[in-house]
Write a sequence for this structure.
């Protein structure tokens, strides 16, 4: 397969939607899974980190992959928390206040259960929210993070389930909202971090940033072998979003 054809396949929204459906119906889908040295509950209809490396890679990009990692402080907002692995790990690493937000009610409940499992309910709030819609107007965070649904679907695509939203962003509508709105939720000196990959359309992301008056910079990157048989090499990036310099 030519490099161009391989990239087209990697970015195929149909392929991602198929992965979404299969991850919900696999006979080996666990109720509890291991990741980053800990055990986690997995609810029905919630993104399963065991079938994708993205959660593990996100922990690595954020420097949270060591189970003994600590020394963090301040506040941390995770958009699209899913099972809550990243948000709970951030709380365990020392962040004083963590909000784990998701558009899926099942994911919100799942994150809350995993916060209780790991003893961080005193510093973690699981919140039902479409990006920032569920936050209080005055809330601000030292770190705003989203491991995004970076595969772009057609503008006209209609989701068949909330689970599909974890895999595909129709017309990059969610990405546009995140790029535009996220900087308004940071505390002074805070950072906005987006986990993206070349399964997504990086050129379109930069066009969106330009249109919104934002600048993007790659803070960290990893190349990861993906696919059922490890046939795909995918570049994962941690992208910082900032207001365009005056």
């Amino acid at each position: 397969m030519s490099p161009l054809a391989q990239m087209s396949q990697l970015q195929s929204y149909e392929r991602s939607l198929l992965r979404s459906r299969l991850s919900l119906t696999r006979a080996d889908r666990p109720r509890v899974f291991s990741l980053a040295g800990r055990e986690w509950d997995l609810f029905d209809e919630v993104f399963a980190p065991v079938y994708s490396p993205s959660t593990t890679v996100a922990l690595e990009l954020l420097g949270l992959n060591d189970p003994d990692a600590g020394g963090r402080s301040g506040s941390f907002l995770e958009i699209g928390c899913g099972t809550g692995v990243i948000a709970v790990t951030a709380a365990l690493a020392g962040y004083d206040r963590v909000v784990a937000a998701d558009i899926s009610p099942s994911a919100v409940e799942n994150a809350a259960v995993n916060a209780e499992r790991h003893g961080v309910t005193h510093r973690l709030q699981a919140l039902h929210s479409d990006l920032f819609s569920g936050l209080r107007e005055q809330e601000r965070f030292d770190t705003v993070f989203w491991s995004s649904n970076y595969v772009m679907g057609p503008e006209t695509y209609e989701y068949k389930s909330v689970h599909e939203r974890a895999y595909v962003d129709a017309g990059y509508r969610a990405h546009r909202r995140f790029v535009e709105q996220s900087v308004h939720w940071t505390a002074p000196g805070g950072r906005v971090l987006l986990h993206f990959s070349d399964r997504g359309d990086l050129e379109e992301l930069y066009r969106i940033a330009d249109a919104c008056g934002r600048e993007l910079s790659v803070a960290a990157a990893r190349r990861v072998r993906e696919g059922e048989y490890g046939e795909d090499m995918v570049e994962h990036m941690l992208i910082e979003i900032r207001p365009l310099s005056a």
In short: The chain has one domain: 3-243. The longest strand covers residues 214-226.
